[in-house]
Amino acid sequence: MKELLLGLRLLMGSGRGNRARFLLMAAGSAIGVCCLAVMLAIPGILSAQDARKAAREPDCSNGLGSCISESGRGLALTRVDPYGNEPLTRIFVAVGDRSITPPPGLSELPEPGQVIVSPRLHDLLRVDTGLAHLLPGRETGVISSEGLSNPDELYAYVGSSREVLKAGGHLSKFGQAETRFPTVEPSTLDILRFTLAGVVLLPLAVFLSVCARLSAASRMRRLAALRLLGLSRKGTQRVAAAETVAAALLGAVLGLGAYWGVNQMVSRVGLPGFKWYPSDGALSGSTFLVCLVGCPALAWFVGRAGAKKAAANPLAVRRSAVEKPPRLWGLLPLVPGMGIVIGYCVAGATGHAPSETSLSAILMPLAVVLVGAGLVLTLPILSRVLARKVARVTSSLSLGLAMRRNEMESGGALRVATGLVLLVYAASLTQGVLIELDQVSKNTSPVQLYTMTLDGVAPKTEQAMNEVSGVRGHAVLASSWTDPNSEKWSESISAVIATCDQLHRMASVVESCVEGRSARIMIPGYSNNEFSKAGRRFPFQLQNAEGKRRFVTVQVPARTIRYHDDTATQLASSGAVLIPPSALPAGFRPQTRATLALISSSDPDTVRSVLEGIAGVDPTIEVELDGVDAAALQQITVIKTLLAVGMILGLIIGVAAYLVAATDRAVERRPQVTALTLLGARPRTLQAVQVAQVVLPLTVGLVLAVVIGKMAESSYLVTGGGAVFWDGDGVPLLLGAAVGVVVVAALGSLPLVGRRIDPELIRRD
Does the pLDDT value for residue 68 go beyond 50? Predict the structure, then answer.
């Protein structure tokens, strides 16, 4: 305790410069703690949103005709449709027994003809008049915040009747243990956490360590003086730790206060595609513990480690002895990490991508951590080796001075360059995550395919959907009838019921189609159905509007049609039979596995207009959009936003670490700069020395970060199971960012030499 009090007394009574340095340490710790709190709050925000989703989840609201609950008192039907890149969730309810407790956010369930919407839907209904087709009824209320995952959610409860909701599930209650549509899937959330840890937490640890070691040289000389006066070795280390702990603790309190303000402001403004309530961002007790205890604990160990040299050999510190060269053990983490990365890259290049994901889930994060740590520990070694070689061959005075200084003080490169090097390395990994997420199924074709089952759809309703504005073509897809108890009718083929004119409207290539005649559809490059052979017969089950059923046998024709459309998966399968509508009995249509397919432009406004038109015909019908998953697209938007937040925080931390370390290093070197000035060195020479000292280790580190980062990114993609292993689109951006970092670092080094000469510095402690 005496040593701790001595450290605090030295802090308060050691002059204005040391007090200013203490405040800088506290400010740096505050920035770091604020960034740390942001990262730790993200899982809590997502968890709070998912908890509200689960609390409102209707039990047995499936929309598939099956029922989970056997004692239901009402009907519920869930429909999730895309509204742009966002999901629009509609809960149709037909409740006969009012004893069912309403979901959170509602005081009572809507009656038939009533609609209760979220605040954002309330505003959109005033702007988009077609949206009323998806929400039939009179708006009677607004869902409160307890029933919404976020303020911008598109959510609505629509009152209806039991006759309309025939396909609905029996409703017993609202609220389940888990939500069906989490904000971010658990597997994806693990990837997000790992990426944010690499982008933010690794540079953050470096930054906090840099802040804890400001003015390390002058502090070491002061501690060495205490050691020479008789203070014990451990006591010297505790004196050093007292100052860093006090600064870290003050910074932690300021950082948590800054996070509170940031959360209150940003949560109300929102981020692109991601918004939350301020209460969701409230920090948990564990987060407070990490910030208020973990950060000072880190500062304690850093302070003690930094004072180890002064406590062990105070005379060497007082006489500014030459530092020991870095040991080669710093290469140890890099070697196994690179071995794993290179192994996965070779496996991907040779077509042997690993299929066992459990082992890759362990090896890949381990490789990323080892490579990141290896980059940090390798910088001093490479900087020293390169500085020695350059100093031997150069004839430039400024370059020679800079290289000799880097050779003697190679640890300075670690403090100055590490933050920015880790930032570029993490940017490569982030790009790999974004590439993997972009491989999620989404529609990139010029047309949009809509499919709806015809079960329970009246012929008039089908005709009305065919005439919806924006629909350019339509057809009925069906499969032949099969009998599981008969070997003769166990095989099946698919059929497209359409005219040649309809087929031309659906596809970009239709050749040899004759109106009124059936034919086999052949798609170049696609394998045919093995059962679709000319002359074979297959039964199709038909049904009319009165419910009467009959069978029609279709013979596979020998004639073929060359076909290809612009949908993502091809509307018809190769080998399917084109059946003209005139070949079917009047008033009958397929019954077994029959779907109605519509085609429109993939323009977002057109897609929204078609969905609203379909809802105007039947608001409860389930529409599947080929290649579009609104929930997945929203997840990708949220993840991209969070990764962008991580990159911004990483950039702030990296730049702050550079500025703090470079400025501190320049201040520490003022005695050497003054001595060189008195010996006749020009200011331009000293500026060139300062720039070279910073640029060389930084350039070496950035080159390593770009090369190794791209290799780590490729190995991550190889283990991700996607189709993309190698991607060069991000290389120019990474190279441009690296060059920009070097230029900014060089320009930032110029003013650090100073113009005022103070000879007193060369003999001042």
Answer: no
